[in-house]
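Why should sequence recovery work at all? Because a backbone constrains its sequence more than one might expect. Tight turns favour small or flexible residues, buried strands favour hydrophobic ones, and helices have their own preferences. The token representation captures these environments compactly. In the example below, the structure is given first.
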């Protein structure tokens, strides 16, 4: 068998191994997990940030990127407007998580999130979570609310009223939604791997010294700006050969991800390798990328794994016989079928021409007009007991099954079941079979997915080309100047390269640093907590301190320093606020080696009295 035919068979294995209904459940699982564990927590964070942090940010901290450069600064910094939009975004995400008007709430949440999620990007440090917006857009385009949603329950009832107890899944739409998600994941890694490969070929990125300096730099940021930081494992002291293998392995993983992700047999191993990669970065560098780790849920075919377990147990489907002429029965069966992920139920309608009905002549239509029946081998149950059996067979209903078997709950349940069953009325229908399925969802997925892929390729491609041009083209080259101008405009949201770490890393760094002068003459750096509350991520704190260090205008340097000191001072420990007599601002050069972390050079730049820092009329 040729390599091409093998790869083709691997690519089409997703369609062969799992049907459209199974992929629709996989997509719904991804929607629930990703919104609950990534989008919702981040939306809550943005709500808190717009309420507590954004109003106190000094004006000079704002460095607009991307389309925010077109927004008037007074509007961009309007914390009240941002907070209102953040609350709206939170509500939309909650509705989408529950599956209420899923496509519309997710689509609106995506649009609002493009603005409010990106506000945090405008303080000099770009964080890499733009994929959150991408995946929300894909979930809105695809049939992510077709099952496991309030929408699914409502639609199941409506189709049951038309005589149809199972809504067919949109053909191929869910699988292609996930495929576009996989492609975008691959592009994230590719955009990080290519700059590393280029830096390794033309420089010394993969060299041991560069890797050690990178580790020291990240640890030093945490040492200065992460509250409660404790030194991470000293992997910089490992043998040089192991560090060299780690750098080469990182490049191979990031470049190979997109080439392997679409092939089903390779995907589980690739997912486990990615989990190990990110967990290792979290342990060694505190670069966790939790939002990306939770996205890995989409890489696993959960339905196929569940069905494989069910097949291994060799359980025959549970036959469910119901009165197909009863609206209440059809609604109940439609809802149960909506939760039947593993195809555990075999539905047979009484008073129908279904040939399977002939296998159960001992259960008459008159019996079905009175009760629902289930059959498993030689056993059968009816009424309330039948629903208990069904709940036990459907994993999604196991919590309900636990309640149904409680004696006190069972007594009440039997009475209610009997009251509802005895009040049923027939509604004769001539079902037209399975409803027609529109291809609109698939076309929408193709359009949205293709646009996202093209825009990401264009953005990361131009940014990578600008990096290459700076190295290989002369300063006055037209191509270099055009690419440099685009890069200077910072088109970093909502499309961007992922963290490249392809720069030249040194063992020293120079920073702007304020210190509180205490009455006994001691000086104490403003705390990591003050930085974290005011600015957020340690890397963002380091970027702000480094940028302020490089400010050439003395008057502007003093004004910016005072603004930032005042913002930090509001979040400083109360004891320091009560006892300090001045704040001294230094330019400091550090040796970042964890074994030393020594101050190599420092210069006093400004002296701010506490009265000036706390005065509401400072200028």
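From this structural description, the recovered sequence reads:
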């Amino acid at each position: 068998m040729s390599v091409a035919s093998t790869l083709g068979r691997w690519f089409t294995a997703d369609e062969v191994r799992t049907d459209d209904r199974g992929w629709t459940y996989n997509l719904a699982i991804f929607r629930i997990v990703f919104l609950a564990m990534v989008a919702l927590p981040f939306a809550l964070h943005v709500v808190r940030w717009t309420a507590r942090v954004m109003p106190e940010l000094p004006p000079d901290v704002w460095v607009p990127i991307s389309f925010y450069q077109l927004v008037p600064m007074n509007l961009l910094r309007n914390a009240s407007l941002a907070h209102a939009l953040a609350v709206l975004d939170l509500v939309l995400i909650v509705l989408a998580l529950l599956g209420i008007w899923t496509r519309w709430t997710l689509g609106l949440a995506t649009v609002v999130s493009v603005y409010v999620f990106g506000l945090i990007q405008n303080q000099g440090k770009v964080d890499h979570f733009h994929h959150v917006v991408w995946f929300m857009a894909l979930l809105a385009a695809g049939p992510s609310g077709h099952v496991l949603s309030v929408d699914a329950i409502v639609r199941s009832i409506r189709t049951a009223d038309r005589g149809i107890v199972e809504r067919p899944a949109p053909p191929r739409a869910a699988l292609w939604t996930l495929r576009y998600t996989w492609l975008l994941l691959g592009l994230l890694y590719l955009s990080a791997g290519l700059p590393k490969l280029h830096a390794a070929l033309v420089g010394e990125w993969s060299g041991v010294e560069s890797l050690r300096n990178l580790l020291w730099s990240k640890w030093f940021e945490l040492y200065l700006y992460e509250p409660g930081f404790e030194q991470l494992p000293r992997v910089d002291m490992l043998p040089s050969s192991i560090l060299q293998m780690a750098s080469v392995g990182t490049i191979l993983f990031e470049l190979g991800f997109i080439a392997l992700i679409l092939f089903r047999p390779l995907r589980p191993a690739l997912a486990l390798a990615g989990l190990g990669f990110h967990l290792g970065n979290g342990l060694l560098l505190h670069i966790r990328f939790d939002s990306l780790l939770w996205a890995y849920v989409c890489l696993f075919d959960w339905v196929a794994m569940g069905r494989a377990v069910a097949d291994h147990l060799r359980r025959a489907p549970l036959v469910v016989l119901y009165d197909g002429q009863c609206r209440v029965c059809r609604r109940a069966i439609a809802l149960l079928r909506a939760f039947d992920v593993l195809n555990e139920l075999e539905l047979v309608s009484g008073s129908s021409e279904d040939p399977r009905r002939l296998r159960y002549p001992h259960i008459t239509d008159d019996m079905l007009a009175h009760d629902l029946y289930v059959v498993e081998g030689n056993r059968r149950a009816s009424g309330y007991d039948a629903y208990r059996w069904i709940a036990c067979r459907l994993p999604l209903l196991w919590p309900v099954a636990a309640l149904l078997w409680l004696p006190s709950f069972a007594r009440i349940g039997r009475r209610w079941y009997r009251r509802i069953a005895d009040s049923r009325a027939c509604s004769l229908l001539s079902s037209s079979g399975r409803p027609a399925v529109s291809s609109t969802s698939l076309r929408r997925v193709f359009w949205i997915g293709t646009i996202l892929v093209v825009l990401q390729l264009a953005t990361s491609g131009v940014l990578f080309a600008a990096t290459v041009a700076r190295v290989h083209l002369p300063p006055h080259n037209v191509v270099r100047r055009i690419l440099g101008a685009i890069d200077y405009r910072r088109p970093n949201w909502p499309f961007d390269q992922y963290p490249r770490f392809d720069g030249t890393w040194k063992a020293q760094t120079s920073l702007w640093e304020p210190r509180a002068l205490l009455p006994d003459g001691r000086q104490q750096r403003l705390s990591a907590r003050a930085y974290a509350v005011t600015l957020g991520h340690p890397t963002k704190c380091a970027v702000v301190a480094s940028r302020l260090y490089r400010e050439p205008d003395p008057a502007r340097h003093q004004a910016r320093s005072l603004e930032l000191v005042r913002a930090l001072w509001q979040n400083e420990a109360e004891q320091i606020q009560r006892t300090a007599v001045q704040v001294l601002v230094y330019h400091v050069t550090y040796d970042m080696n964890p074994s030393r972390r020594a101050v190599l050079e420092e210069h006093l730049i400004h002296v701010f009295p506490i009265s000036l820092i706390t005065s509401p009329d400072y200028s």
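A few observations help interpret the result. The two ends are 77 Å apart (CA to CA).
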